Amino acid sequence: MSSLSHQLTRAVAGLRCSDSPIDRLGYARDLWPRHHISVRGGALPKPRPACVVWPTSTEQVCRLLRYCSDNELPLVPYGAGSGVCGGVTPSGGSVVMDLKGMQRWRRWAPEEGYLDVEAGALGIRLEEELQARGYTVGHFPSSILCSTVGGWVAARGAGQCSGLYGKIEDMVAGLECVDGRGQSSWLLRRQHGPDITPLIIGSEGILGAITAVRLRLHPVAKKRAFGALSLPSMEAGYETIRRIFQRGLRPAVCRLYDPFDSMMAKRSKGERHHSGGKTNIKKKLLAALLRQPRLLNGVVDVSSRHLFGDCKLVLMFEGEDARVDAELQQARALALAAGAEDLGEGPARHWLDHRYSVSYRQAPMFMLGAFVDTMEVASSWQQLGVMYQAVRDALANQVFVMAHMSHAYPDGCSIYFTFAGSAANDHDARERYDETWRLALAAVIASGGTISHHHGVGRSKAPQLASELGLGVEVVRDIKAALDPHHVLNPGNLLPTQRSEQRQVRPPPSAPELDLHSGLVTAAGDCPLRVVARAVSAVGWQLGVDTDIINSNMSVDGWLRVGAPGAADRWLDPVDQWVAGYVAHIPQRGRFEVSTSPRRAAGPDLLNLFVGANGAVGTIETATLRIQRHVAHPLLCNIERNPAVTADERGWIERVYRAAAAGDVAATA
After folding, report:
1. For the chain, which domains are there?
2. What contacts 600, CB < 8 A, 6 or more positions away?
3. Stated pTM of the model
């Protein structure tokens, strides 16, 4: 045992610790595909952590972080290592903290609508145990076999049934977190604030170590209804999805595949693996074709329907018996009106049977000298087609591109791009891989999209985070300084190395501006709420806020700063949201803009520094708000909406607010 391992076991009683070469190697990276290019050539990951530890309690985590902080030792929280953005790349002197030794259920409270479970619980095991009791979280990421609850929350992930249950941030009612000084607290979600859980969700281990999560529970659905349709184009497909969600329908699964991805989805079996000469020849031929991406993309673009068929829309509704069938029929009618052909339920059932097999398809391509990666981005419905085409155009000369859309909302959608490329050697492959990502993210940013919907940022997208958050990056950096003064928590992850400067932001509109295609209205922060509601109702839509609040003298910012009273209960429809984008002003810092998006996984969500914060940090100068014509059927929820704030939590909130308002490092005191 090394000196460091010995010191750690002395500092933390009962802590399991290893500095064996095999453990250090096994924890040296996550599943970032860029790593695979080096590994296939025989290069083992470097650097490697100094040691790996497996705590079994929050108290051990607290003691460990105190020791690391006192000795300025980098510490990297680790779930199951299935992240794909380089979020786990420990330095040579670091400690990796594997939380899978913490899998206990702390509190089973189905009558109150939640479960408190420790962060190391594996996803598939948790769901199996819950369903045996008649409940579900509703979170089914493709990595469910190899991911943890803490990892889901830290990355702000999404599951395959997000169309009904929302993303992970919509399922978290609270979390237990240990900061960089070794102090722990439960942080609880509140309908009207104060609520800083959105800052820990998506923080990717840089603000604190998540040790337990309060997850919302749903009864297991009584019935499922399946449907599939073919559509003549991606545009016809995503316009159909838009109409489905804006009609108030909430299919648990709603997936649209382009023609090539439709063909690949149809062929996925998952349970069988073929080998032999013909298969190897086909794979080598594909690798060679990938070196001519423009030709391959051109052939697919021109002949896609002839070669691969139409786009395919897969639907699955679940819930109460009668409503499920009725909602499927409504969705089918909307699709048929757009020129769809009914394929029956077979393709949807096939997808469900093989839905996790996609996570295990990359290795053969890497071994042939090619590379494969995925990019999940999102935008409003208004910008979705622009972003889809911009990314395809940007990558046409670099890689072969296909796409599907699998996470939809009333105001926008995610696009899941898959790209594959090849090069003569590993050095050239890395260069092409890096250039592909640079061009793709630039196209997303130029189109007004978010750089991540559910994979997170890690190290792979950190250089582009300033394009997403602007000066908000420095807000996150200073919150980290307050919660982790010695910068021991996952250093080098998420935040760009260079400091961000003030960027130009959109000016507040002189009158409310409507985007009816996306179901949004943009208004100045000082605009009276009743003026916004009047503009919306004039075109047959509703703001979705109680009439007495609308008729008060509140401005948009005044309404948001007190927690948006009278707004729709987000627990009842977790797929919807209040604010899709905004410009914030922090007096001692300046302004930053967060572009319009239905959801994002681009670091901590800074909106709750303003919503329900009573002006402690700053003001909202411009807000893009959700509007509606149809309301979704509510999901019943017994979770307490506005629990009391404990003294410990109050201390965390005040530190975060002070740091955000002024970069006040004294907040660490």
Report:
1. 3-101 (3.30.43.10), 223-456 (3.40.462.40), 513-662 (3.30.465.10)
2. 156, 378, 450, 452, 453, 468
3. 0.95
